[in-house]
Amino acid sequence: MTLLLKLSKKxxxxxxxxxxxxxxxxxxxxxxxxxxxEITIDQNQQDNSSEIKKRSTDKxxxxxxxxKQNIDLGVQAISQSKExxxxxxxxxxYEPDQTKIDLNIWAGLDLETFSKTSELIxxxxxxxxxxxxxxxxxxxxxxxAFDDQGKLYLQFITDWLIKNEKMNLIDQVINQNxxxxxxxxxxxxxxxxxxxxxxxxxACGYTSLMTQEVESVLLDKYKIxxxxxxxxxxxxxxxxxxxxxxxxxxxxxxxxxxxLTGLSDKPGDNNFDNIFNAHLSIITSYxxxxxxxxxxxxxxxxxxxxxxxxxxxxxxKSLEEKNESNQKKFDEFVLFLERSVNENLYDLNQVLNIxxxxxxxxxxxxxxxxxxxxxxxxESHAILYQAALLAQDSKIKLEILKTFKDKLTLNGLKSIxxxxxxxxxxxxxxxxxxxxxxxxxxxxxxFLKNNSKVKDNYNNNFLYTSKVRALLDDKTxxxxxxxxxxxxxxxxxxxxxxxYKLNAKDxxxxxxxNQLKIxxxxxxxxxxxxxxxxxxxxxxxAMEKKSENLVMIKTITFISNLKESDSxxxxxxxxxxxxxxxxxxxxxxxxxxxxEFKL
Length: 599
Prior knowledge:
mainly alpha, two-stranded antiparallel ribbon
């Protein structure tokens, strides 16, 4: 017994000694990490990322990325009456039960036909079409139904998401199929988009989605930089060494990373050829004298410039430096601001105020249209704007404004030319309603509708954008429904008094309300379409052959050509509704109708 007790004591001492050694080992490792060089960013050079914060691990994705645990990509999640094979690859967000689109709708569809339709969609900015695309192409479907296993389909999906900047949808679909993550253009877009908007943590989150098959020099650089951003210095240095072995040397990038990781005390030259190089230049240079010219090459750079807070520091100085000796330089500065307004990065009124700073003689302002042709932009814009403000005669003012709009539209500055023209035109029309013709009246209506800022997403200046739209939704509460019916009566009275003239979309809405059996005032019932409604032959033939994919594709083409200005708008609008009815696609019909009448 005594021997056993002695052994127990020795064993206890041995365990304690081992635990002590382990504790020392962990402590030393922690101390070594704490002593590693930290990277700092100068507060004065980067407003949006003033210091390096606590970084997420490599496995972290952006906060808004769809949680993979919440999606069931298995076939058991699809509610289908037909049996589903194990080899089906399911992609999409919306359930077929919701949209009534079959899981295998694209089976046997000719890839060339699909390619032509996808190109058409990517060229269109029509709201109702894009709303339908979201539900049609993001309904869960079997990618193996395509001859190429969905490669062309997913390419279209990524192109459409990029073009429309549907960031919320991107975060939902990005984990659903590895083919998406193999698209370098897509991942490069995501990094650049969030970097230009000042969300560097989120931009870096997407670099972890890169697969080994992706061949992209840019993405390799982004990933190395993001290791630095997260203070993962050893990983950054290791991947930089691999980059130098496998890629053509980029001296600028290597110098910046070596400086940020502490391997060099020389930051190297600065470069503003693209947003990534611009960002590296800003965070590594403490005495950088920035100019707006550093960010004038493309929209992404301009976006970064205005969203980062740098613009506030630089623009004021450039405005103060205006004088006769540097007129050319000032003109270039105004051109930069004009482009920025056109991209919704800078305030229109600020540019209009700058136009007023230009000096013109009385003789020049007497004949602004002729003299504007002798001047270069932006002086030619400024003289027309000043002359329009000074003109007292309504007809002369209108002519000058039209020249101003046409000139700026021709120069790619529609976002400046149209608001000035239509806002001034609205003032003129109040004084003299007969000053413009029916076509210009319609154009003014459309502009005011699209630029209206009304609560609850309604614009009661027009019937089809008014609260009457609430009657389209069978879930509208009693209070709103009562308000909508009252609004309908108000418009009816205005029409009787000649105070409001129905347009094509108004008539289309009236016909939809009639189909929904909404009680219409007697004077509106005469607007109900009584002629036969024919479905286009190629769509009807596809329906007869039960080729649902062709019906869908050809209906999309039909909708893309639907224009309010066409004389057959109401007929074609009702034909589209009839197609959805015949196909029993009530949900898609609702999406189309609601978005056709949206602001």
